[in-house]
Amino acid sequence: MKTNLLTRMYSFKKQALLVSLFIGSIAGVFSQTEFYRGGLTQSDFDGLVASINSKTVELQNKIDQAEAADLETSYAESSLVTASEFLGYATRDRENATNLQTRYEGNGFRIFNRSFIEQLVREGITGAPNYSVIHPFQELLNTINVLDFAIAEVDSQLDGSIVLQPTQNLNQPGNQLTDGDSYYTLNG
């Protein structure tokens, strides 16, 4: 009986540890780790865009080197697509800031916007009177971070310190969307 109780206590402690680790990992994934702290002018925006364009060229050059060395490049290529998409999103959001702010102040977004501004104040960031003003700059900063990570990852591949496994080609025969489901299966 005592062994059974100890086993259950150990199992409970193990489950509690796993739950706390899981919650901690989720909190890290969804928390903002780096806030944009630069200016909010058109010139500042253009500088971030220029940085993205420069890093995009750098990453494409690294991808070309990796392909020449027969290394996996789909991860880095997806970062190029992400950068291109978010550059468009940031530009659109900046051009439509008033409309965007109206949406953020609407039902369901008031608490989010207020919480974001409170978080900015806690971080000591000033100069962004509402979320829609800083949002495009944050998108650009996050895009720069994605590109920096991808560049470093390809560099690590090129110097042999990491090996990335090939991604699954969903266009190949046998890799198909199963009937009625929203996921792919390998070889039917």
Descriptors:
mainly alpha; two-stranded antiparallel ribbon; 68% helix; globular; disordered N terminus
Structural account:
Helices cover 68% and strands 3% of the residues. Strand 1 and strand 2 (184-186) form a beta hairpin. The radius of gyration is 22 Å and the shape is globular. Strands 1-2 form a two-stranded antiparallel ribbon. The protein is mostly helical and 188 residues long.
Report the sheet-strand fraction. Answer: under 5%
- The 3D shape can be described as globular
Q: Give the end-to-end Cα distance, rounded to a whole number of Å.
A: 49 Å
Q: Which series of helices and strands comes N to C?
A: HHHHHHEE
- Radius of gyration using CA atoms only: 22 Å
How do the strands of the widest beta sheet line up side by side? 1-2
- The poorly predicted ranges are 1-31
* Helix count, DSSP H or I runs of 4 or more residues: 6
Number of DSSP strand runs: 2
Give helix % range: 55-70%
The main sheet comes to: 2 strands, antiparallel
Mean pLDDT: 77
Query: Pairing-aware structural class of the strands and helices?
Result: mainly alpha
